[in-house]
Write a structure and sequence with these properties.
This protein has about 625 residues and is of the alpha+beta class. The protein has nine helices and 37 strands. The strands form nine sheets. It has a five-stranded antiparallel sheet with strand order 2-8-7-4-37. It has a five-stranded antiparallel sheet with strand order 3-36-35-34-33, with no helix packed on it. Strand 10 and strand 11 form a beta hairpin. Helix 6 packs antiparallel against helix 7. It is globular, with a radius of gyration of 25 Å.
Length: about 625
Amino acid sequence: MASSRLQVHVHCSFQKSSISPDLDHFKATLSSAFKPFLREIQQLPLRIDVDVSKAVKNTSVKLLDAFVDSVFEFVDQPLLPSQSNFAPVHELREAVQVTNIQGEIPDDFPDGVYIRNGPNPLFGALTSTSSMFGRSNHIWIEGEGMLHALYFSKGLDGSWTVVYNNGHVETETFKLEKQRNKPSFLPAIEGDSPAVLSAYLFNLLRFGEINKQISNTNVFEHAGKTYSIAENHKPQEINIITLETLHDWDVNGAWNRPFSSHPKKAPGTGELVIMGINATKPFVEVGVISADGKKLLHRADLKLNRCSLCHEIGVTLRYNVFMDHPLTIDLNRLVCGGQLVKYEKGGDARIGIMPRYGDADSIQWFKVKPNCTFHLFNCFEDGDEVVVWGCRALDSLIPGPDPEKNKFEWFSKKFRPVKSTEGSIDAVSEDQLIFPRPYEWRMNMRTGDIKERNLAGTEFPMDFPMINGAFIGVKNKYGYCQVRDCIASSASGMAKYGGLAKLYFEDQNAGFSLREKQVEGLLKVEYHMFEENTFGTGAAFVPKEGGAEEDDGWVITFVHNEDTNISQVLIIEAKNFSSEPVAKITLPFRVPYGFHGAFRPMQLQNEIMMIIPSLNPKISKPISRSYVQNRN
């Protein structure tokens, strides 16, 4: 979440008695711990026939490694039985053909790749460390990224070939730890302040990076190339056929900071609008990349006075949209004994509307009710107004509870169903604030006025929204999102999504829902609920080629049945959303729960025969990844 280049000016108030002892303890323990290693350095023999600087560097790294190994104890974070499908899986060596298909893949379903990202810890689990500095932990969003891909190819005879593959996103830090064959990076987000600070220090000294490049959150396409991304680093280009990681994408050296996880293509131009956050100034910058992906056309510092952990940027025909909410990364707070990442309840929240090529002075800010909004359906212009639709909550799941609290109990309480039956979420109990719900902001660019309202009731929490990608930045009629199962999530202490929802943005609801009286003014919502104890992630909208209407297409998603331990991919017709899936594709391997997915239409007939050589009688042996890459 932070760059490896830190220039931190700390201004702490020491009125609280707990802060100064923390820092004094950190300095004292660091000094005493290094004394035996300083003595060892003094006794090292010198050789004049070697590169001294290289020898000193290698020796320093070895001493630092020895120090970390002796002082820090890595401990796996255990999973409960109800959390078993959050556990990682092994990487496949070769792709496999999938033949167990119930129903039929529609004839007009496009050839292409459905791909989803998600955490898959390299060494089997997220870890914590304990040391003389205290304890630090990986949080639930961490873990090395793994891509799960399903390839759809229709033959000349009309039959479908379906192939599954998976593969880790091999970032530089992934390759480093894999070579060492053990956890090496110290957790540097959550924990006791001295422990997190020492993790920052030792990670930076040993590896040149403060934290691992996890690349586990999203997959996106630009200029015909596919990228894996998480907002603590630049994206990695992926060969979508082989899932091989190619290189980091820095726009030919013009972008030297992280990307947010959800860059957006600008309507009309095809330019990619990106945003990068950092723990040090400048906290947030916005960029515009050319449609061919070769040039950074524009870059602007928003000149914020805090690092707001904004996960997604929005675009309209003319504007960029930025959500500045009080979930922040604050190094001052960390050094002064607090948490690095924290949601400040009651903190200021605002939405910034910026011309596409504008600067900080051109942003028009609108103060909104305090909230935490990670994901957006869409943004568009409607007369004098800019409209934003997102999934709004009143608290954050990131990073989680304070270190002294029980994690399972905290998450379990937060995931309970909302008791309100009148559609209001602003008056629920403290334990029910993490309830993402479709929401609308309307900002009048001429008058400066803003109107806010809920779009759906409190029957289900909804998140991970998606729309038909052709309507990004312009007015749309429909949106889709994942529906969280409150009971299963509360029982497991981890978010589980038991269905999907389709929102009709131009239709109001009528009648009664399953559990509560509908509130006037809320939208019509249609649900597609999965089988009992079946939960899904990574849903994506697949448009029908040549479709006449916005919802001509399908929603595709990975699901896992926890009773049978079987993973499937479902294809659901968007126009008959509550009906049974038109196809259920049973996978030969378990697919853990993850984050965001995407569908990339592309012709695969030749590539399928390369991935699965047995399908091509002219090929007698498997094709290497490098061979396939050279063909693309």
